[in-house]
């Protein structure tokens, strides 16, 4: 699904955020990306959807080297990649329904298909009854559910989540993780950067640990491995 080959990323300030990443993530896997702050986790995540480009190396998505994609082709790449952020990034001027529908409108999907699919994902995240509400009328957990619904409305093959429970209380965090497990169970690949030790150690999945731009551990059913 996603493969990095000898990937290096050096920022203009001299920081080496990726120092020879070699990793393969298969279709349907659930992968945690862990490590200390500033270790290179966000760079790892952002390079997967071309928010950042490596200095050297190859990143393959479905066999296509996305580092060589022309900028105008990047939006097409992202149709198959859903992204969930810590701070939700919902459009406050749009309703819940409109936030999710927007992801389909930009690819010029038919209105009847948009309505059907939006209601499907709202039902999946348990917020069908809040379709006409505005984002600021929702709790943090509800906003994150809407963010997830928007990320999966295109039926992407992979969902990338960058600290998706970072702004949520523990109970809500577990609810969000249950939702990610359900999405993964239908075959969607999940790659999640997180600092949540309890979640990683309880819901055991593959763990990729990054320190100082180096992958120091890659374990199936791994542990968090750091003090939280």
Automatic annotation (TrEMBL):
Residues 2-228 form the ABC transporter domain. It is a peripheral membrane protein. Keywords: ATP-binding, Cell cycle, Cell division, Cell membrane, Membrane, Nucleotide-binding. GO terms for biological process: cell division. It is found in: Cell membrane. GO terms for molecular function: ATP binding. Belongs to the ABC transporter superfamily. Part of the ABC transporter FtsEX involved in cellular division. PANTHER family: CELL DIVISION ATP-BINDING PROTEIN FTSE (PTHR24220:SF470), IMPORT ATP-BINDING PROTEIN (PTHR24220). Homodimer. Forms a membrane-associated complex with FtsX. This is Cell division ATP-binding protein FtsE. It comes from Jeotgalibacillus marinus.
């Amino acid at each position: 699904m996603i493969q990095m080959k000898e990937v290096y990323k050096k920022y203009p300030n001299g920081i080496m955020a990726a120092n020879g990443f070699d990793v393969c993530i298969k279709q349907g896997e659930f992968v945690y990306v862990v490590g200390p702050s500033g270790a290179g986790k966000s760079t790892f995540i952002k390079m997967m959807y071309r928010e950042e480009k490596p200095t050297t190396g190859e990143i393959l998505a479905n066999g296509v080297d996305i580092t060589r994609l022309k900028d105008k082709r990047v939006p097409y790449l992202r149709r198959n990649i859903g992204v969930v952020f810590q701070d939700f990034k919902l459009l406050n001027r749009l309703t819940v329904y409109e936030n999710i529908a927007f992801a389909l409108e930009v690819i010029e999907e038919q209105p009847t298909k948009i309505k059907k699919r939006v209601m499907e994902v709202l039902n999946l995240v348990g917020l069908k009854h809040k379709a006409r509400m505005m984002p600021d009328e929702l709790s943090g957990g509800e906003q994150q559910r809407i963010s997830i619904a928007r990320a999966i409305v295109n039926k992407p093959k992979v969902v990338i989540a960058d600290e998706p429970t970072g702004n949520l209380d523990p109970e809500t965090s577990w609810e969000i993780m249950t939702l990610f497990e359900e999405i993964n169970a239908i075959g969607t690949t999940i790659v999640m950067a997180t600092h949540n030790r309890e979640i990683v150690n309880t819901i055991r999945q593959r763990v990729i640990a990054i320190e100082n731009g180096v992958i120091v551990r890659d374990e199936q059913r791994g542990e968090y491995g750091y003090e939280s």
